[in-house]
Each structure stands twice: as C-alpha cells, then as structure tokens.
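Appendix B. One record, verbatim.
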Amino acid sequence: MPILAGATLRDRLIACLGAALGVGLTGFICVLATGHDGHIPAIAGPIGASALLLFAIPASPLAQPWPIIAGNTISAAIGVMTAFLIHEPALAVGVAVGLSIAAMSLTRSLHPPGGAMALTAALLGPPATAAAWLFPIMPVLANSILLVALGWVFHRFTRHSYPHVPADAPQNRHGTADAPSQVRVGFSANDIDAALAAAGETFDIDRADLDRLLRQVERNALKRTHGALTCDAIMSRDVISVPFDASATTARDLLIRHNVRSLPVIAADGRLAGTVGLRDLVRRGDAIAEVMTPAATARPETPAVALVGPLTDGKTHAVIVVDLAGRVAGLISQTDLLAALARALAAKAA
C-alpha cells in the first residue's frame, strides 16, 4: 500500500534527496551566516518536519510557502513569549502549542511543524539574552525562507508544481452567463461543499484539486464503460490541411471553402506543427507560423471518449489524430464525437 494516495517509490526517493539537500544546505548557509556562534543555533529541529512536507507532499496546502514561513515564525514567537510569561515548563509548552495552532489558523498559515516549533521555543526557557529573543528570526525565519527557496529550485527540476497552484476551474469562454458545458451535468461546486460538510472531517487537499480529481474520476469511468470505441473508428481521414509556410489568406480561403473551424498546419517534414482557425487569423500576421496555436492530439488507438475533455473546453473544435511519427492520420471534430457517442449510447440502450 502506498504511504500516501498517488505516491510512488520514485516520488519518495526524490523526496529523500530533496530533503537531504534542502536541510543540509539550509544548515550550512545559516552556520556561515552566524559565524559558528554557539549561542545562536544554526537550524531549528522542526525544520526537518517542514522539509518532509515541502519535498514529499509539495501539493499539500500545509506545505506552501506562506504556511512554512509564517507558521514556523509565528509559532516560534509565541513559544518565546509563553516561556517569558509562564515559568512552569509543563504549562508553558502546552499553552504555546495551543496558542500557535490558534494563531496559525487565524492567519491561514497552518503548518504542523509549527506546533513543534512553539514547543521547542518554550522549552528553551525564559529568554535571558538578545539571541534568545531573536530565536523566531534567527534561526527560524531564516531557516524557513532558505528551505522554501531551495524547495522552489528543486521542484523546478523535478517538474512538480511548487508553489502549488490548483488547476483552473472550467470557464465559459463565450462571454455569457451560462455555466461551462463541462459542469452543466454531474456534480457542482455546491455538491462538493455539501459532501465536505457532511463528512465532518478536514482533508489535506485543496478544494480546487478535489474538484479536478473528481472530474477526472468521472472521465475515467466514462472511458472504462465506453472505451471500446477508438479514434481510428470515427476519425475523418481525408483531412484538409495547410502548409506551415502558407499565407493567412490561403488558410482563410480553405476554412471558408470547406466549412471547417480549424486546419492542421503541416511542417516541411510532414509532421503536425499546430492548428489554425478563423479566430487565430483575426490576429495580426501574414504567415501561418505567426498565428497558429498548439494542437490537441490523440493516437488512433486512443478511446474516443477520452476526447470529451478537450472537445468541451470551450476553445478546442477538433482533435488531430497523429501516428507514431507525428504525421496527421485523421481528425475528430466535436460533431464527429457527438455522433459517435450518440450511436454508442443508442446501441447500448437497445
């Protein structure tokens, strides 16, 4: 069983490497900054827990830059103040942890290692020196900023989204008040909120990510139940295309003459280079290369139902089917897919 949903052994090994580099470099840089002063710790222990979240679960709301930096720093400050006001250690650590959770919740910076940071600061006892009063700044704030910066650099190489930005919700691209076509049928945002309220639990996932995952589950279920129909079976094979070096006028004439909404653009080597439609041709530019856009593509063996997503995003009118060499094998328009799914559903009902 995976440690976390979606986790793989490769992800965990990468997280181990990232945490080792992140904590090691953070400690090294802070040791250089403090000049090896024994009165000022170079790194706070709970930073190790922050590194676990940052490198192992970078999509978690608890692992984002603001929770790491603000959560740790605010909690450390509360721990120092609590130790100054309450001299009984057992009472001080309890009050520090409780207040830190409240403060992090109010500032939207909830970060589990913050509780440990408050406890650590409170265990240092009443601050008697300037270095003790500055514990929230050095090392805690310095550690947190360095760790986040190193995490950002590391995740650029591992191609993880950090800081994590949830996928945009479907948008109506036609300037009307209607909901996007993808969300008119099925569950809504209110359904998600109602389910979360009914569950009565707190989940470590962004609400927008939850919406995206549930919609992907719907698409996967649809693909599983109607997956026998492939792109090869429904695609148009006599595809009208335009050369990469053609003029915008040529492309416009082809679109109007054949009454199609987009044309594949073919590079000099015969491979698909992009697509162009009437909307693209409104933009300034005399050559196709200046106005074409990336193409939505599929393989001949791809289940046709997998195209429901791209063909209902409000901007894609056709998916180009390409072979292993990247050459155009066919094209599936919104009309092609609708007709094929209607026939499949009618046959299943019969």
